[in-house]
Design brief:
By secondary structure, this protein is an alpha/beta fold. It is 43% helix and 21% strand.
């Protein structure tokens, strides 16, 4: 996850991977998964624009965080 502001001053979040939510054999333990999940949820809630690495990540953002598809853009 990368957070920054665009030229208009709006908050933008760039998400590259959500495998820690879908893969149970991920290298993160339960606490790290919980921490990153809530951190990303808060950032996505405040962002005006969300950039996803690919269609799978965009679908997972919509699936896990209930973000409308029109706020998610592909890289």
């Amino acid at each position: 996850m990368k957070k920054y502001r665009d030229t208009e001053g709006k908050k933008v979040v760039e998400v590259s991977d959500l495998s820690y939510l879908t893969d149970r054999n991920h290298r993160y333990n339960w606490f790290q998964r919980h921490f990153y999940h809530h951190r990303l949820r808060r950032a996505l809630k405040k962002a005006s624009k969300i950039i996803a690495a690919d269609k799978t990540v965009a679908y997972d953002i919509h699936r896990f965080y209930f973000i409308p598809i029109n706020r998610i853009f592909l890289k």
